[in-house]
Amino acid sequence: MGSDTQEVPDLGGREDATSELLVIFGITGDLARKMTFRALYRLERRKLLDGPILGVASDDITVEELVKRAGEAIRHTGEPFDEAVFGRLAKRLSYLHGDVTDAALYEQLAERIGADRQCLYYLEMPPTLFAPIVENLGRAGLLARSRVAVEKPFGHDLASARDLNARLRAVLREDQILRVDHFLGKQPVADLECLRFANTTLAELWDRHSIAEIHITMAEDFGVEDRGSFYDAVGALRDVVQNHLLQVLALVAMEPPVGPGDDDLNDKKAEVFKAIPAADPAHYVRGQYRGYTDVAGVADGSQTETFVALRLEIENWRWAGVPIFLRAGKALPERVTEVRLFTRRVPALAFMPHRERAQRNQIVLRIDPDPGLRLQLVAQDDQNGHAWRDVHLDSSFAEDLGEPIQPYERLLYAAMTGDRRLFAREDSIEETWRIVAPLLEHRGEIHAYERGSWGPEAASELVRGHRSWQEPWLPERGRSH
Predict the structure, then answer these.
(1) Which of 81, 133, 286, 463 makes the best surface tag, with the fewest CB within 10 Å?
(2) So what's the pLDDT on residue 13?
(3) Which of 215, 244, 354, 447 is catalytic?
């Protein structure tokens, strides 16, 4: 049984902006089952929940059935389960069923909650329903003091993202819209500001004078499995690059924010996106693991990519001339996400027995699993003919900083308390679609690769003349090479 007493972390937010009611559209869906109930339970355990929670979905079930499903979902995640904590959470839950495209549902909702509540409406729904739900909420007079959080994907290209923004902005102010990207809730991503700017050791190295190139990898060791029909219409570029990896890149590359305000961080991220030229299809590799087209829901002869690798540049004073390589894929050997920066090489060392240049140092930020930071240095190995040897200075955030806050736990609390720093802004969403637009228009050849490999050979050709792709730094494994 888990403990009911736990130190309360500072998750930010503003007390005067805290939502009086959380309304979750799609509370009977996969996201709620896998993530949301667990996040709410953890917030309840930390005593960070204040108000009631109203679930809305099409399933004709009782609130008792919803509570039962919530308990099963939390236990299924492996979260230590405390009956007292769950009992408090269960008392907050209520339920309303109906068709989200039917105006009658919103009339019932208005009767249930009143028009003057400060609510957070969390839309765990297909993106095609974002605008209709918001428009119905607006017609029912339920948005004046409220915020709306929407899950990714936010559009499927630049035109559709602009259209969705226009429809939402016709009803809401920008500061009422929270565009969720769960990567922005991951501890090492959220803490990148402090790692970069609070440590002179890193801050003085973090530019084109010291860094030669940047690699970002997001690898998954599983395939599409039971998500064939969804994934086949999306592909790796839309699924994880346009959102997750570009958001991470912005945090890696941005200038220090000028203040703690909601827009200070997003202003600096937007500056990075604006400085990135549109991706060049000549520096883009698409792959598909063998057996993908056998998955249920995948079209015969599908050309949807399950692996991508691409090169980008940032044309500003800090990063001009530093190539940035991104890769992401399914059915790879490991599940790991990391950022890897390679320093420039030092001149040949005349005092060594064999005059030569040392290997580059590396800075590695592991986002998943077991978040941590590695500084990879080189030293002389006297036992092996004065050869170079890697020396690793590693930090595991869980060991050094304590239990990490889960992404949806952090994001839900930020959304409920009006902290917009962890959510993507309208201009950034449109800029990221602009960056990948040429790759959507000119998809190019698709290369087959074996499950359990690191993708097609063409991905290695992409980095020819630069540092090769590295074996990721994994928890309790051997060193990268």
Answers:
(1) 81
(2) 52
(3) 244
